[in-house]
Write a structure and sequence with these properties.
Elements: E1 6-8, E2 15-16, E3 35-36, H1 38-52, E4 59-66, E5 72-73, E6 93-98, E7 103-108, E8 114-116, E9 121-124, H2 131-134, E10 145-150, E11 153-158, E12 165-167, E13 170-171, E14 178-179, E15 185-188, E16 192-193, E17 196-197, E18 202-209
Antiparallel strand pairs: 1-2, 1-3, 4-5, 4-6, 7-8, 7-18, 9-10, 10-11, 11-14, 12-13, 12-15, 15-18, 16-17
């Protein structure tokens, strides 16, 4: 048996039929309001309850999109990384999570250059993060890739329409975030061909440090 669907008015809390564009009680605009059911409403209430709890020294607030399957996704994700469901219409919410027990590093391959990822979101490119190192790499776009730390994982998303981003010599498909594992090789603007890397591209190893 399917659950009843409805839109919750943001002004008065009235439960309205999904087809309505105005609240039947207070006439507030319902355009763009997500269609809910009892399970989804309870999930969002629980997420808000957790978000409103006082944080301790071992927790920190993060912005996530919570899928119907319960998975926490980066706020910019369009599809759930666990079940593949479309989550583009789910509003990001703030939840608390344990502070990172690990640190994350990018080490340039062939160069003595290492950077620690110390921000929840980092965009890298010739005119973004790491620009001092990437400035001479002409195959790297001005804003080439986005790195997001969420729920104890580091996700990478391609932002370049020209030379793309590669993980272990495989191109990241589309613009969906991909989870990185310790030891993964990141290629910005190039791949390894016949054992040779392209000089105008940039290559990093991703490391998880305890």
């Amino acid at each position: 048996m399917s659950l009843e669907k409805y839109k919750i008015c943001p002004a008065c809390g009235e439960h309205n039929p999904p087809s309505l564009l105005e609240c039947r009680k207070c006439e507030a605009d319902l355009t763009g309001i997500k269609v809910m059911d009892m399970c989804l409403e309870q999930q969002e209430k629980e997420a808000r309850r957790v978000a409103e709890q006082p944080t301790s020294g071992n927790t920190e607030p993060v912005l996530v999109r919570v899928c119907e399957c319960g998975a926490h996704n980066p706020p910019q994700a369009r599809k759930c990384r666990e079940c593949g469901e479309d989550i583009s219409d789910i509003m990001p919410i703030t939840v608390t999570q344990d502070k990172q027990a690990f640190s994350y590093e990018l080490t340039a391959i062939g160069d003595e250059f290492t950077v620690t990822l110390d921000q929840p979101v980092c965009i890298i490119g010739r005119e973004s993060g790491l620009k001092d190192y990437l400035d001479s790499k002409m195959y790297v776009s001005r804003q080439h890739a986005k790195l997001t730390i969420v729920a104890g994982k580091v996700l990478i998303e391609n932002l370049s329409n020209t030379n793309k981003t590669f993980i272990n010599n495989k191109m990241i498909p589309g613009s969906e975030p991909i989870s990185l594992a310790d030891g993964d090789e990141i290629g910005l603007g190039g791949t390894e061909i016949g054992g040779q890397r392209q000089n105008q591209a940039a290559y990093f190893l991703f490391h998880v440090k305890s």
